[in-house]
């Protein structure tokens, strides 16, 4: 999969559907007609189909249209409604108060027509759009409904295996927002998936992998799993010191989190007291 390029001249096009394979009823015919007569709408349908089945807020698309390749990338925000109408009329997409929703049969048909490689390109663009739409804050309750609306699409964008640093950062902030909302269980599930995926794709010492490890540890702490959190933080701090150094902000934050866990587990002995005890044990 090629990641989206920032230079318009080198952008990978959002793939259109291939020749439609047989699908039930009018869905296949509608998709085939769309690809022939309205390529911009066909591209939008591809993006909707690789995201989650939950409604996608309309502004996820409109605020970043210029970052997409043409023809959809050349549509002015004021023209976007006509593109959506081309999907709503044949019932390929529903538009409601919470955004654009694509039914599972349509999503399956589009993904099948795209194939795995082209669907991956679409997913990369979709992830770029979602990452650009997340709130700037995670700890203010006013932002939580927005995080809740975008969370399934961040996950569907496969942030755990993404080459896009912005999408990875947005996924980490999603975990933090869940912790602020007191949702330790989903935070732990998402953080574990991110950490595992980033260890595989980026390596265990990459800063994003270690950031994911830190958020996973915080999720474990919130769930009361202090011993696994401590073990993970011991490894994370050691790797951060080795890769970024003792004074790096990311290292210092992780070390402070570990210190808090140690205190909750019964206190952290002072180094000088530990050495004194060692001397007392000598004959």
UniProtKB/TrEMBL annotation:
* Domain of life assignment: Bacteria
Which residues lie within the region annotated Disordered?
1-21
Instruction: List the protein's name.
Output: Tetratricopeptide repeat protein
Which organism does this sequence originate in? Answer: Paractinoplanes bogorensis
